[in-house]
Amino acid sequence: MLHLGVAIDQPERWNAAPYVELAQLAERGGVDFVTLDDSVARPGPDALAVLARVAPGTRRIGLVPTVTSASASASASTEPFRVQAAVATLDWVSRGRAGWRSDVFPDEGEGGAEIRDVGGGRLLGGAGPQGRPVRVVDATEATARPVAARCADVALIRTAQLGRAAAVRRQLRDLAGRFGRDPDGLRVLVSLLVDLGGGECAAAPGHGGGGPRPTVRGPLYRGGPVDLAELIAAWHAQEAADGFHLIPVEPHRDLERLVNGTVALLQHRGLFRTFYPGGTLREHLGLTRPANRYQTLA
Predict the structure, then answer these.
(1) Tens digits of per-residue pLDDT, 160-191?
(2) Do 277 and 286 contact (CB within 8 A), yes or no?
(3) CA distances from 77 to 11, 38, 39, 105 (A)
(4) Helix %, strand %, coil % for the chain, to 5?
(5) Where are the beta strands (DSSP E) in the chain?
(6) CB contact set of 271 (below 8 Å; sequence gap of 6+)
């Protein structure tokens, strides 16, 4: 089954209400999860705090804030131990719908095992309602792929080329197997900027069947919702990705067209869910609940 995540970043909005609105819209489309970057360009609460406020306003959609060690040095509230506690709290508040995108990577081991701060070498513990929050890693750069293959539940890759996406996905699955993991326990999603300002018009040259176009901000698709659905279906059919992480250029306009156009068409074709069969983010992604190795030893 195809998997979809969407970004709900709004640099000029600081209160929770606009983020709740976008998350609810994405939830109506059955999207697996929403992401929110922790950007200094956005005033007010950090991504974790915003999504903690989004949680009560949603019921099923996954919530994935970005938390990095860079932000840990900027604020005591994002010190690695506190980050882990905050993500666990989000998982409890959302009843198992939390994930986190970070460069603070888990140690080997399953639910309830330690999580290691790569920079500080310290161990963090704790598990949530889904065993542990879903771990998302940007695996675009080659140096990040071994970590993603060993630790991540979801790996994101930014590329405008179908062939490259397929090659990186194969590499990640192969590495996961070498680390003793079941490759089917790793979801690889292509991350794309999407500009649907043209409504139902055909994709701009270089954006349609030939794939997105590289830009300084990252790979960009510009065109209509129908052609975007065609692109997603084609890449998924050719095993270039398990799904897509879509970043709207204009949040309200593009997300509405994604849900009502692109997602609706994928649902009509039987490629994407029409309802959430489970309640946790792991269930949305088709991932098993990790065993607690301490309980196993006991």
Answers:
(1) 999 999 999 999 999 999 999 999 999 999 99
(2) no
(3) 21, 13, 15, 18
(4) 40, 20, 45
(5) 3-7, 33-36, 62-67, 99-102, 115-116, 123-124, 134-138, 154-157, 187-195, 220-222, 243-248
(6) 1, 2, 233, 236
